[in-house]
Amino acid sequence: MGKIRTPYLLLLPGFGFLFTFFILPIINLAQTSTQTPVGGGDTGQYEQTLRFSNYVDAFVENKEQFGRSFVYALIATLLALAIAYPLAYAIAFKGGKLKNFMLVLVIAPFFTSFLLRTVAWKQILGEEGFVVPTLRNLGIISDSTTLTSSAFAVVMGMTYNFLPFMTLPLYASIDRIDPRTLEASGDLYANGFTTFRRVTLPLSMPGVVAGTLLTFIPAAGDYVNAAILGSPNTKMIGNVIESRYFKIVDYPTAAALSFTLMAVILILVTVYVRKAGTEELV
Amino acid sequence: MTKESISAKGDLRLTRLSKSYGDFTAVDDLSLVIPEGSFFALLGPSGCGKTTTLRMIAGLEEPTVGSIHLGTTDITTTKPYQRPINTVFQNYALFPHLTIFENIAFGLRRRGIKDVDAAVSKVLDLVELPHLAARAIVNRPALLLLDEPLGALDLKLRRQMQIELKWIQKEVGLTFVHVTHDQEEAMTMADTIAVMNEGQIEQMGSPADLYDNPKTAFVANFLGQSNLIKGTISGNDGDSHIVDLFGQKISLQKNRSHANDQFIYAGIRPEKFRISRLGTPTSGNILTGGHIEDVSYIGVSTQYQVEMPWGQELMVFEQNDDGVAPFSKGEEVNISWEPIFTFGLRGDEDATAGSEVNPEELDEE
Questions:
Q1: For the complex shown, is ipTM > 0.95?
Q2: Does B95 touch chain A (CB under 8 A)?
Q3: Alpha carbon distance B157, B315 (integer Å)
């Protein structure tokens, strides 16, 4: 009997933790999302009225920011994938003895604060950085164009910040591919491109799915990059939720937005995973 | 170039092929012709260069020096997918994301073959265990390379597969090149065996040639077991040499001697020896003064270790078919054999070459 109980006992701490710090708050959040201000009360005083139209109002009011969040997150995810795939491939297949060292380099940015690194992008893309003058000299951007406080800067910041989350699962997945299957593909009349399309890519799909999810989901809810690198015109839904909570003290709208964001992400992810045809993640 | 090489056929010719990795020479100036339609085995211990040779033929490695021709077409630098050559990989290297059918159809689809279904079902009729070689055979390549594909199978299944592969080769008439460290496997399947050692071919021939008349100590020891006795050529008797083995004279056919001076190793396979008790009439080559050191009864035969007066222990396999009571430990015996079974090796060879490698224990290179 003791043997049978052991796994459940091991589950207890995790379950307890998640119940206290995830389940209870989310129930609280759900309750908050349908509240309305107390008539004649102070700012921040709300009572439960089951006003579900909070959701409609919140969404209609912020649909622009919603759309922007998903577009930015999508672009950042695709950019990160385009950068991380060759990187992970090179580390897995050509890394040799340097493999572990290169993996450390991939996660090295984590040793510095996330905020600090994002602020650094402000410098990099600023007037004093090397990017803007170079692009101006090359005639790619006009003298009046700036890169900071732009959608470009926000997307670049997100791409950069989430790159390791894309690279690591991709690496894990590509590293597991038996190089002999690639040789076998060449042996069976497939050239380099066909081998990639028919063997390498399908075999690395679990990594692609995991990496894109690990990038897209936090990116869609991100507000730091938009806050630091963006402008009022690049506000994402995360920024709206943040300001509703901490500045306007409009808890019901913030809660409703949070739930809407969660729901949309959940639907997108479900559709995506179904399409990718992968049940096992990583 | 693609079109030309993909339709090449004929004998496979390796000309002065070498492959080095830094200071290490895996394949050393190797020349070889593998006739079209033959079942050819590259046999050797781990690290002898056989797999590297196979990979160069497949196009998975580029030779450092030398050339590879298929018929009249030079395929030395063509890509693997441009060669009419398919490989059965050691671990089969099946595509885990594809069904067995799609694995087999892979090569056909890449070449744009029309009736994939028919070709796949035809090859599945041909082979009993589809995963083994079907993916390669279905393409009917000019050359099929087998990289120890049976290594992971248990003994019984391996024997079954050996026979099946041999049958398939006859049936489809393709040229098979089989790499293995298992001498029994090579002998079972191949028409011609090239025994490789340290990047070079030690000896090439039919299994019977190699076994009956090895030219080097390596071949004598790697292919089966051999007794090599040091001696000198002391005279001639027609077509034979008279060889002095520690004072006892035996006869060796001149055309079975590969010594280049009078110093020689006389070689005799253990099953060619006959043991007789003192006073029993014997004929042929005789060595006297042996003592039975060890007796192992293994059913089909009895294996004896016989210590000779000069201290060497000879190995003797006696068939248990003559009703003669087994010899017992310590008994003094004579050893005899038919002179035609003697082979002669150079006296300056290392008599243990090839014997310390235990093929069963070795893995891939």
A1: no
A2: yes
A3: 31
The upper half-sphere exposure of residue B294, i.e. CA atoms within 13 Å in the direction of its Cβ, equals 9
Tell me the C-alpha distance between B233 and B256, whole Å.
13
A187 with B110: Cβ contact below 8 A: no
Which residues of chain B does A183 touch, with a Cβ-Cβ cutoff of 8 Å? 58, 60, 80, 87, 89, 93
CB pairs under 8 A between A and B: 66
Chain-centre distance for alpha carbon B173? 21
Three-class SS of residue B23?
coil
Q: Is the Cβ of B89 closer than 8 Å to some Cβ of chain A?
A: yes
Contact between B337 and B284 under an 8 Å Cβ cutoff? The reply is yes
- List CB contacts of B128: < 8 A, sequence separation 6 or more: B164
Could you tell me the pTM of the whole model? 0.82
Using the Cβ of B135 and the Cβ atoms of chain A, whether some distance falls under 8 Å is answered with yes
pLDDT truncated to tens, each residue of chain A (282 aa)? Answer: 557 788 889 999 999 999 999 999 999 999 999 999 888 777 778 888 889 999 999 999 999 999 999 999 999 999 999 999 999 999 999 988 999 999 999 999 889 898 999 999 998 998 888 888 888 888 888 888 888 888 999 999 999 999 999 999 999 999 999 999 999 999 999 999 999 999 999 999 999 999 999 999 999 999 999 999 999 899 999 999 999 988 888 999 999 999 999 999 999 999 998 888 654 443
Which pair of structure tokens corresponds to residue A38? 């107390």
Q: Which 3 state secondary structure label does DSSP give A183?
A: helix
Q: What is the DSSP string of A193-238?
A: HHHIIIIIHHHHHHHHHHHHHHHHHHHHH--HHHHHH--GGG--HH
Phi, psi of B311 (to 5 degrees): 95, -15
3-state secondary structure of B244: strand
For B2-212, the fitting CATH number among 3.40.640.10, 3.40.50.740, 3.10.180.10, 3.40.50.300 is 3.40.50.300
The structural domains of chain A, ordered by start, are 53-276 (1.10.3720.10)
Give contacts of B95 with chain A, Cβ < 8 Å. Answer: 181, 184-185, 199, 203
Structure tokens at A125: 């893309």
CATH class in words for B225-348: mainly beta
| Tokens coding B140 | 């009917």
